[in-house]
Amino acid sequence: MAGDTDLSNDAGADRLLCTGIRGLHDALRDSDARQWGERDLDECLIRVLHACWERQRDAVVADQDVRSAFLGVLTMLASQGSHAATALQEQVLRSS
Fold this sequence. Notes:
Elements: H1 11-29, H2 33-36, H3 41-62, H4 64-79, H5 83-95
């Protein structure tokens, strides 16, 4: 569609990933079961976490606030039964 922007390969979007992860973590900490039931929420969050890990891994590892937020969102998803979150947790642990 004309006017749509694909941020999937945008360097500016990459820089926003860490900030976005912190914001998501803050928002999700206060969420309830109804909000977790939103359609495709877990899939969307996993895509964001994967993008952040693949593109900003060094920032996730180096910045305590980003790391805490990243792992916090990942743990929330895993506790909701997300197999993709569990797989990403294993990947993160293997690279540590």
